[in-house]
Structure formats: C-alpha cells, structure tokens
Amino acid sequence: MDRYGIYLLTLLGFLHISGIDEVLGELTSCEYTGTAYNRIQPRDGAEVPTQPIDGTSLKICQSATTCCTRRMEQQLLERATMDFNSALQNELSNLEYSMSSSALDFHGEYSELLRYGEERIKQYFGTMFSNFAGFLEDDIQQLFDTLRDHLRGRPANVPLSVELFFNELFALLYQDQINPRNRRVSGFSSRCIAGQQQTIRPFGNAPLEMGNKLYQSVELARLLLNSLHLGVEVLNSTHHMQVGKKCGRALLEMSYCGTCLGYTTVKPCNSYCINVMKGCLANFVDIDPHWNEYVTSVINLVRWSMAGDYDLQLAIHSLDANIIDAISTAKDDSERIIEEVNNLCRTLGDRGRPSPAQNRDFAIQQPSHSIPMAPNPSMPLDERLLAFVDSLDSSRMLYSSLSRGLCSEGLMAAARSNDGCWNGDEVDRYSEAIVDDGLVAQRASNPEVSWNGRELELLQAMSLMDKLQHVVQSQETWARNQADFILSMDQDFSGSGSGDEMECSGDDEECEGSGSDEMTMSTMPPDSNEDSGEARTTPDSDFTFEPSKHDSDEDNEAMVTKATKGKGSGNIGEKNPGGGATQTSTVSASLITIAFLLSWQHLL
Predict the structure, then answer these.
(1) Has residue 35 got a pLDDT over 50?
(2) CB of 403 within 8 A of CB of 274?
(3) Which of these, 281, 223, 288, 219, lies nearest to 468 by C-alpha position?
(4) What pTM value is reported for the model?
(5) How many CA atoms lie within 13 A of 66 on its CB side?
C-alpha cells in the first residue's frame, strides 16, 4: 500500500473515532457532542448520552439517531436565542457606545459652558460695579439655574428669567449710575423701578434679544441630547428584542441541531444563515426608513447647533458683551430714563449731597484682574460634533445590513460559501436563494422562518418606529417655531424703540439691510444654499462639514419651506428631511392594522 492509501485509512479512522462516519453517514459516538454541549452549558446541564439514541422524540432537531435529549434540546434552544441577542448587541455596540458617550460628552460640555458663563458674569459685575454686584448674584444664579433646568428638560422659562435679571439690574444701575444723586430711594420705589423696566425699556431690545438667543441655543442643545438618548434607547431595545417561537426554532436548527448529530465544528451555510437572520429580523428591517430619517434629523440638529444664531458657545461667550452694550444704551439715554422713572414711580430728586458715584467716569472700564477660564478640552466641541456626525451618517441602512453583518463574524458567523456546510438538515450544499428584505418578502418566500404567530415582534418594531418618528417630528416642530419666532421678532422690533427714533435715509449705510431679512436667513439650515458637492464651513467655526451623499440641500430647503408655511402645516403626507416619512399616527395605525390582519389569519 502506498503512502496515500495509508493517509486515507488514517483519516477514515480519525473520523470514526470522532463519532462521525461521513462516508457511511452514521453517528457512532456522542463524545464530541458531549464536549461541545458541556462547553455551551457548563451548569445545570442535562446528562449527555454516551451512545446515539432515537432522535424522533425531539421537537425540533428530529433525526433517526441523535446525541441530544429533550432537555438538552430545550437548553440549546435557550442558548441559541441568547447567542442571537448577544450577536445583535455586538453588532450594534460600536454605534450605541458612540451615541451614548457623545450624549454624555455634549451634556458635560454644555453644562461646563453654563458654569463658565455664570462665573464670568459674576466676575464682570464684581469688577466693574462692586457697589451693587452682591445684590445681583442671586439673580445671576437664578438665570443660569433656569438655563440648566431647561437643558435637563425640566420646566423653565428662560426669557422670563432674563427679564427678571434685567429688572433687578435696572433698579440697581439707576441708583448707582444713571441717577446717582437719588441713590437713597425707598424699597417701594426700587421695586417700582424694577417693575417698570419693560415699560421704560432702558436697555432697548437687549433683554428680548438675549432671552431669545439663550432660549433658542439651550433648547436646541436639549433637543439634540434628547434625540441621542432616544436613538440609544432604540438600539438597546433592538438587541433586547424578545425572540418569538418561530425565530427561536430557526435559530436552534441553524446553530445547534448539527451539534446533536456530531457536527460540532461545521458552520452553517452562508445563504442559510442570512435567510434565518432576515426571517428573525423581518419586522425590524422595515425600521430602516425611519432610522434613515432619524439620522438626517439629528445631523440637521447638529448643523443648527453650530450656526451662529443657535450656537450655545457663542451665546455664552457673548453674554458680557451684550450686557455691556445694554448698560451703555441705558447710560446714553439717562435723561429720558430719569424723567420716566420720576413720572411712573414718583421718586424724589436730590435728597442730600451727591454720592461719590456722581463723579465717576461713566465709561465702562476693563476688568482689573483675570476672568474665569473658558472650557478648553483637548478636542473643541465643534470638532467633536463633526466627528460624531461622520459616525452617525455611516449608520444609514443599519437594519437592512444587520443580517449579513451577523453572519459574517461573531456568534452567528457562517461559512463563506454554500458548499460543504450545515444547511439545517445535513452537511451538504444549500440551494435556496437569499430572500429580499422586508416584512412582505419574508412572509411570502422565506424558507427558514415561519411567519405565523409573530405579532409580538411586530408590536416591538412599531414601538421603535414611533420613537424614531418622534425625533423627526420634534425637529420639524422646532423649525416651525423658528418661523413663528421670526414673525414675532419682526413685530417686536418694528413696534419697539425708546426715545427719539433714528430716521434713516435710503443712502445711509447703517440703514442698509433689514433686520427681518437677516433673521430669515438665519433660520435656514447652515449652508443650505450652497452646492451640495462642496465642503461646508460651519458659521463661526474653522471646521469643515462634508455633505452626506444621502441627504441634499433640497431636503433641508423643503423642511424650512414647510415650516415657514405656518403651524397649521405639517400634513401627514408631507416630506420630511430624510426622504418622505409619514407621521407617528400614520405609522402606528398602519402597523396595528397589519398586526390585526395577521392575528386574524392566524386564528383562522
């Protein structure tokens, strides 16, 4: 006998000892099955037969002979569903971690900005207006506590807190700077002066502008954080999905029925694995359009948050300059203010000799010592936002790609081909075609996962769709509110003013460009008028945003156009900024109808 014959006999002997006589197709020993089973189920495991037994009594892994008992089969079924959920978690873990860590990072950055802003304003008044800075500390703290509450989603009225701050500032500034000869006013007169701030308007439009800017920037930051938390919740619910009986049966057949026959190292065929995964995820694959819209909505929120009018960093860093301008406006208009205060609050004139503050230079001086240090992370917030956008943008078509991703690596990993692999019955070729994505295709043609009795999974998918749609609707509501805000600001500014209004001719440079036009442009998504093929530079930032190939300027413009039509718009059939989604009520109603029909058919 030549050496090749010796090699062949050795191989056949090895296969026989291993318990698999592949030439004869016989199961002769349960040694390898026992080893694999004990590795899978180390505790409370069933006793493994030493020799093959009758396999017709099993519910799922039926065969002429087997190395699995009914109890082993049940435990392997539980293990198969656990493996599936773990594989889902591993597949989604990078994206879930990116979103949750980014939400935590952004919240910490926003909170640090508010802390810095509070300390900076207190430092400014302590340096420039030491006579009354102590009286303002509680009002400053209350203002920033309101901003923090709003960021956390608690009930808060930011514009009102700004107005109350300016009310108190007016009373103190009036006595110390505007009319220092009348510093000894009564408590009643002081309260009257504070209460008349909105009538006298000593600071012009500064309280209104500052209140709206702070509200819009914090509201947008809150909306972004809330959207990220909802996205993480959707991903978490996906890999914790309850596996139905039909899916569990298919998972067991694919993962462990071969083990009962001694095929402990043979992987399932590639197309077989993909069909099983598609069948188990059939309801969830239809989440994809809603996930894609969610991604577009979150990216739009990031773009808005980096635009000048809604940038929280810019709003906080410009607070002291805004307050300086407001105080300068009041001091420049001191004669009118004194006259109106005397008329409205009946304050007395000179009650004694002038106070030392009377001889002060009214010019605002620079602080004499350093102000609090601004947050200075290793990577600026804008850069982190853009890095997050890149990561999130790559997750489009997430749910439709899960099936192939699960079968390519990890616990569900399949063979690279469809030959010489486990096909659910034996080690051979898998000849079935890969079915299309979606609920309808799975129901009609998936050969591996039965469709009946899967209403619970459908309801789980409906819940996730509603959560994603909530984010899309929140962004649309916010955009509509911007349109209403523009109209209200136009009305406020056109009807506001103090003292003599400055009359402008058409030739004056200071009068060129209406405020309403400028504000209207600010409500457009950043760079929405630029060519979609060009890199976008974020306003007030040195960073560049590369446009996604999945969204377009037309989508953004459609969103703002729809929002500008008024609150009454937003019809169910209108296009959302990610490509034509319906609203939550429509999603829920249609899916409930499908679930009802499936349940009725199942009962019949």
Answers:
(1) yes
(2) yes
(3) 288
(4) 0.72
(5) 23
